[in-house]
Design a protein that fits this description.
elongated; Cytidine Deaminase, domain 2; 233 residues; alpha+beta; 47% helix
Length: 233
C-alpha cells in the first residue's frame, strides 16, 4: 500500500477528510469547526488535489485567527510557503464577500438604529489592517448611509486628515452628518491627543456648515473606542 492511500479504495486519505469536513459544516455550520478547519474549506477550491490541513494550520499560526488570515495583505500571505495567487485571490474574495454582506445590513436601515452592525462592519474592514485608515460614513437627514469612503491611508500610527476636504466631500454628497472611523494597528483603541485634536477641528468645521460629527470610532484588534461614549463629543 502506498503511503497516504487507504487500504480499501487506493484514494488519498485527505479526499475522505474533505467530505467528512464538508458534512460536519453542513450539519453544524461554521460554529462546529475550529478556525483552521473553516480555513481548510476555503482552501479546497484553489488547491483541489492536496492535503490543505498543514497549510491552514500554518496560516492560523502566522496570523492568529480565521479573520486575521482573510484580512492579511496579499504580500504577507505570500510569505507563507505554499501560498500563491490562486489562494490569495480566494481568501480576498471571501473577505470581500463578508464585508459586502455586513455592509448590506447597514445600508438598508438607519445607521444609528443598527449600531452593533456598524461596529461589526468597521471591525471587519479595519481591525487587522497594518496601516492606519481614515474612513467616513456619510449620513442623510434620516441617518441612512449615503456613502462609505476611505479618505486616506497612512503609516502604522498616523493618517493625515484635512477638515476642509472632509467637509467638501460631505457637501458634495449632501450629507447631514458623518461618522469618523479609523484604526490603530497597534491594537489599542485608546484615543491619542492627536485624535482628540483632529476630531475637535472637524467638529468646528462641521458646525459652520451644518454637518454634524455624530461620532468618532477607533477600531483596534482588541476592541473599539467611541468618542461619544467617552463623552469626547
Amino acid at each position: 500500500m502506498k503511503r497516504g492511500l487507504s487500504e480499501d479504495d487506493g484514494k488519498p486519505h485527505h479526499l475522505g477528510h474533505r467530505e467528512r469536513l464538508r458534512r460536519r459544516f453542513r450539519d453544524g455550520g461554521a460554529e462546529a469547526l475550529p478556525d483552521y478547519e473553516l480555513l481548510e474549506l476555503v482552501l479546497f477550491r484553489p488547491i483541489p488535489r492536496l492535503d490543505v490541513k498543514p497549510l491552514a494550520k500554518a496560516l492560523i499560526a502566522r496570523f492568529g485567527s480565521f479573520t486575521e488570515v482573510l484580512a492579511a495583505t496579499p504580500e504577507r500571505l505570500r510569505e507563507v510557503p505554499g501560498i500563491g495567487d490562486a489562494v490569495v485571490t480566494e481568501l480576498k474574495i471571501v473577505h470581500a464577500a463578508g464585508l459586502r454582506l455586513i455592509k448590506g445590513e447597514i445600508s438598508q436601515r438607519a445607521l444609528l438604529s443598527s449600531w452593533s452592525a456598524v461596529l461589526d462592519y468597521c471591525r471587519a474592514a479595519m481591525a487587522f489592517a497594518e496601516r492606519e485608515q481614515f474612513r467616513i460614513l456619510f449620513l442623510d437627514k434620516k441617518n441612512g448611509l449615503i456613502a462609505d469612503e476611505v479618505q486616506g491611508i497612512g503609516t502604522v500610527d498616523h493618517t493625515p486628515v484635512y477638515p476642509r476636504e472632509v467637509m467638501k466631500r460631505a457637501l458634495e454628497l449632501g450629507a447631514s452628518a458623518i461618522i469618523l472611523v479609523h484604526n490603530h494597528p497597534s491594537g489599542d483603541p485608546t484615543p491619542s491627543a492627536a485624535d482628540i485634536d483632529m476630531t475637535r477641528r472637524l467638529i468646528e468645521a462641521g458646525d459652520k456648515l451644518a454637518v454634524k460629527v455624530y461620532d468618532h470610532i477607533i477600531i483596534g484588534r482588541n476592541g473599539h473606542a467611541s468618542f461619544r461614549t467617552l463623552k469626547l463629543i
